[in-house]
Design goal:
36 helices, alpha/beta
Length: 1132
Amino acid sequence: MTMHIDLHSPYLIAAPDYRESSLGIQVLHRLCHMINERGGRAWMVGCTVNPEWNAPALTEEAYEQVISSGRSWIAVYPEVTTGNPFSAPVTVRYMLNREGVIMQNAIDAGADDLFFWYRPEFADKEPDPNILGIECYDLSLFQDDQPIKDKDFLYLNRIPESALDLSGLPENITILSMRNPLSLRELAMLLKRGRVLYTYESSGTCLLAMLCGCPVVSLSVPGYEHYALNEQSLQDIGGAGFGYSDSPEALDVIREGLPIVRDVVLAKRRLLETQFEHFLFLTQAKAQQHDEVKERNSFSHWISHRTLPTTVTAETRLLHVILCLNAQVSAIEASVASLTRQGVDSRTILLVAPEPGYHATTMDIRAVTVDSWVSAVRQLAETEDFDWLHCIDAGVEYTAASIGLMRNMLTKAGECQAIYTDEAVRADDGEITPVRKPDFNLDLFLAAPHRYLRRVWFRRESWLATGKFNPEFSQSFEFDALIDYLLQWGTGCIGHITDIITLVPASVFDFPSTLEEAQILQRYLQHRGFSQARAVQQKNLTWRISYPQPEREKVSILLDAGDDPTRLIRCVESLISNTEWQNKEILLAVVENTSAEMIDLIKQMQEVMPLTAIVCGAEQNYASRMNLLAQNVAGDFILLLDLQTLFVLKNWLTTLLSHVIRPEVGSPGPKFITADQRLLSAGMIAGADGWVGHVGQGEPWQTEGELSRYQCEQNYSILSSNCLLVKREAWQRVGGLSVEYDDQHVNDIILPLKLKRAGYLAVWSPFSVVVSDNTQLLETVCVSENSQRQTLLAEMLEVFTDDPAYNRYLSLQRPLFRHGPLTTNVSDNLSLTLAKVLLLKNGEDCEYSKRIADLLQNLSTDNAICLIRDSSDLTVPEILRLVPKIVVLTHAPDKALSARLAAVSRIIPLRIYALADSAGSDNNDRDQVNVVTRWLTWSAKRAAQLSKRKRPVSCLPVLLGCEWVAQSRPTSAERRRVLCIPEALSVKEREFISRVIAATHARVDWIILGAWPAAWLPMVAETVRWQEERMSPEQLHQLRADIAIIFRLNCDHNRFKDDYQAVQLAACGIAILASDVPSLHNNLPFRRLKADPQVWQNEIVNADRYVVSQREISTFIYDRESIPEVIRGLFM
């Protein structure tokens, strides 16, 4: 009976072009056909196909569907494929032969790959191999219905004819080879006439010959024995069909058994359905498992299942108003349920009912009408029934643990009278994405109030003081109230909590109320004294506020002349011809030793334009020269300008000038694009890209960006001084540029930072566009390379690690606005007292890196430390953003990482530990060694060596996780099973074990875990693939080993090894036979043996099986109540 399997994940199958002459290729195409016939979805990749089968070639459209479906998909590779060329989430290895036989390639399988074998013989000693014996033989074509047998054949394919001696074979023998492929019908007609088929290699052609009544004789040639038919092959076809001799008697015996072969094929066909079911079940289960892991790691799962890592201690009283206008009952109930799940008292919920007399269906919740809800809230406020007010539309849900989080966070609101939070948006298809908002950003929030200024938390007292909500605004009442807050208390009264508190349907999130917003914006502009300003809604639903421009004020443009006349004239000509603002002057800094050519050019320019040249000393740096120019300006505004800037839109300066009339604005800046109309800079993020990141760089210049930010005027902490307009009074107040800095990347941002610190806003405008070919804006800048950058970073640390124009949970690496780790912002007393440990993976995964990760994870789970994991490519600002007390490196640091860590250590106190047991620990570079505070090792010998070198070192104890407990397995009545893990053995050690296996394999069953020498294969009972991933206790138990041998010679190769693996095996109830060497000495009762083969052979066969007890192993198991002192001292 066919079982039901949900074929939700599609298959992509790698194969050569379909051809009848290759049975292996046919099998792959047939697998595709079978999957599709079963109702699944499968395609052949990169090959021509058989049009008569349901095995289509993959098209671009189909591939796009597979990739975009969100489901894990499955790649099936034959053994001739190396690696995972499709980058498939789930990989299946279909072994149509032994690894490396056909193409001499290693398959480089992943640790999680599924294996299926075409025949049991190809699985060698694999325990319980998955067999998928697909065959496409036409038994009506390949049958013994030709009485005349008059031909002898030699099958020859992979072995070169030059390697063979054919003199002993019949004369006039016909060679069958893939070099001269035949159709299946042609092949059948030949094989039916066969007296005998000789072969040096296993092939499906041999089986076809047997079906046609042609005996097969197996031959072998030195060096190619692995190709030959063997006893496993004979067993696989029922013990009949071929032999090793072509004597008349032997051939008669083979012929007598030929009917058995057909019976075996028919039996295998019946078995194939079960095998195919098993294939579908395992592959779909693996894909489902991959999807579940992906889902558990997804944002939607995190936001639905996160827990608050602290207790709720605050008694903050909240009032939740749910606006139910035009809402479905299901939407209302979803909002209510998201509160009640978190223990919210129904008496603190107020429904604004869609109709009079409405009652919630789920519980007794107070409902008021649209006309009376503001009055009802005011009454509750006046009687002090709540501390903070929050309004949501029906359908909006509170995220898991959000209410307790807000109660705690609102107690720390300080002077904030209103607070908005980060959110998540649920699309119509159910996909959930986070919306990470900047800190209060006046220009951005005025441009898109419906995206930023809704679902705001209002403090009761200030809400009452400002006149509550205006009932005239059904959608934008919060925006209207916040305008009053801004006019009364300024921008400092509105706070931001960077946690995702609400889950908002997309239809609610991006639904502006155009008329209401327009009225509110116009009221705001009137109150600010900008009666002539206008707010115009753009196609992207954001607002552009056009402030009135100054009337006659002069702009003084500061230019550094440089030493390239062509560049100077290009910039100035572009400036003059493409700037509509006429009242301007140009001041040019000219170094005293400037060339005569440049002097002549400047004189010519002065004759036709208002240009003042000021000679500067050769010793003056850029900042000094610009400050000197600024002392001589006549204008009200100063424009810093780089010579590599060109102008294409004449209103670029007028647009900037419209902002400097605002008292809060100190410096507006334009959008920079390249000559080929790509974005160069749509604003700057401090701390991004290792220093400062340019928003949108490389994208089309009119790209909308995250929430249309690339098309909204907004406030940035930093704007590029390549083209920056500054009020003269602001310039003078901050003292202009800082002459102590001469690094060009510091000079580009120092002035905006000084203006920010003085309280001025910087406004970036997408409506002012200039072109630049300054490659400096494209450079990747590293803080650790320059002491001036480090000084500025330390001085403005908060801006570089948590730029208010960005969000601390967005990535500081490109692409910007990418969401970072899924964490909750909890600054409770517990997390403040724990050591924050940053584990940096700065090399390939190895046993030691996994050990330290396990140890730190156990400490973190027990709230002994606060653990953060990341990769070693973190920049200096990224590390500083995390504020670690301790950094643990999985390998010795390279030069670049050492420099970054050294830079961090100069700014914050930091302990840096590095694993000495991983590769690279013997590096003698002084800087790389000195940056490490302490080296960590599990080897006493290595600890002693490092101590001699005067390096601080701690020797860590072997500690297994609590899942490793001694579980003794009863001795079976079967033959003793002996486990060997040869991965780390040297050549000499393998030779020793080879002798031991050869002497004992007749009396015990050897199980080999991991890569094994080919010579061992005939002597061992089982080989278990192991892709250098650590085995779990469950996997080790499945090996059913009685004894494990750990053999080491006492030599340099083993000097720094430890007993970790031996302890793991012992913890699983496996008796240990170990070499008597220092690296395996501990207080566990292993049998420790000298390097004498006879002693090992005797112990393996005859010794009693002694398993360590629970008490004995307990000292090697992690226990939160008895953490070793060395670990406490390092991390706690």
